[in-house]
Amino acid sequence: MDKPTQRLRREDWILAGFRALTAGGVGALRVEAVARGLGTTKGSFYWHFSDPADWRAAMLDYWEDMAFRRILVALDPLPAGLPRLRALVKIATGLAYDPAHGGAAAEPALREWARFAPDVGAIVQRVDAGRIAFVAGCFEAGGSEAATAAQQARLFYAALLGLGALRGSPDTDAQCLMRLIDMLDK
Amino acid sequence: MDKPTQRLRREDWILAGFRALTAGGVGALRVEAVARGLGTTKGSFYWHFSDPADWRAAMLDYWEDMAFRRILVALDPLPAGLPRLRALVKIATGLAYDPAHGGAAAEPALREWARFAPDVGAIVQRVDAGRIAFVAGCFEAGGSEAATAAQQARLFYAALLGLGALRGSPDTDAQCLMRLIDMLDK
DNA sequence: GTGATTCCATACGCTACCGTATGGATCACA
DNA sequence: TGTGATCCATACGGTAGCGTATGGAATCAC
């Protein structure tokens, strides 16, 4: 399934964890099963991590960094305001399955995980709040009042999440969101 | 946790399954654990169901019936068009946790379950399609073209789902959706 | 009330996973 | 090439859940 015989780094386990999470949900985060997928044994796991909780914490750290900062960094050079938001739509709807770590495909599993794991919930909430604040900033730069922009951002981000859950085509989703931006802008 | 000593019906196991699903996700659908919650043993389970797959199938039947038809029946007497949609917003955002079966709180878990269980995915997709068609009907009755109404409905329903995932207050969510209806209507 | 049916408790073997302990393989580097 | 550090395979005991088999309790028919 993966490279046959090679020494693994801690990050390899983290990425394999995301693949498992994407493919089978939180219940698939089992040490021995993932070890088999990596062509190794749990001997490797317990070298890199103290226990499954440690592993999951490392995954969450990784995700919080990736899910928020890296996308925004890509948008930073773009002109502020609604153009930046439209660029975000293209990025967000086009986020395909990343074979390395599952990419955005891991998010639904993470959100469900967050429902009954308070620490995960805290992280997802931070990421959501950060993203919504970013979108709100776009609307503000587009001329909205702060309070209005916050509402617009919340609705926009909710639509983005919901469209993702409906699993339509990226093009259709992007079209929907562009129209929403237009409507919110007026 | 539940009634101490009483004979259980098949439906009791189905409802207990939804409570477990709501509280702990798909991974919590384990026979012996739920049996303990019901104050019984798996002896009862294997009397009412042939195996866990049978149990889950019964839960899905139950949900598909409840999640779609019952809400629409409540809306049927209302005047068609956007008023009916606004009533739906009030119902949908106000759906609290139902101690019997988890109510709408079970939906996120079901959606995540659907991601890696094709049969569940088919059911969720049917329910979504039905709901979106209903919403589209409201927009059509409000004067939209069929194709436009379909897009409006998709966006509206996505926003409804996304706001639910964000776990804001019902009032805020309802307010957001009302504004969205206004915008879409124009 | 008694016999049949319905429903459940318990015990058993099986599998999968966790966590640890220990020795061996592989690598970096001199 | 040797030596310490790094990384992993294996074996073991413990726990939890599945599925079945079987006897017993509760309930219903009459």
Question: Can you walk me through this structure?
Answer:
- The structure is a homodimer of 186-residue chains.
- The first copy, chain A, has 186 residues and is mainly α.
- Chain A is built from 9 helices and no strands.
- In chain A, helix 4 (52-75) packs parallel to helix 7.
- The first copy, chain A, is elongated, with a radius of gyration of 18 Å.
- The model of chain A has no long low-confidence stretch (mean pLDDT 91).
- At the A-B interface, helix 6, helix 8 and helix 9 of A face helix 6, helix 8 and helix 9 of B.
- The structure holds a DNA duplex (30 and 30 nucleotides).
Strand content of chain A: under 5%
Return the structural class of chain A.
Answer: mainly alpha
Taking Cα atoms only, what radius of gyration of chain A do you get, to the nearest Å?
A: 18 Å
Measured between the Cα atoms of the first and last residue of chain A, the distance is 51 Å
- Oligomer class: homodimer
Instruction: Tell me the number of strands of chain A.
Output: 0
Q: Largest contact between protein chains?
A: A-B, 33 and 33 residues
Global geometry of chain A: elongated
Q: Strand-and-helix sequence of chain A, N→C?
A: HHHHHHHHH
Helix count of chain A, per DSSP? 9
Which percent range fits the helix content of chain A? over 70%
Largest sheet of chain A: none
* Low-pLDDT runs of chain A: none
- Determine the mean pLDDT of chain A: 91
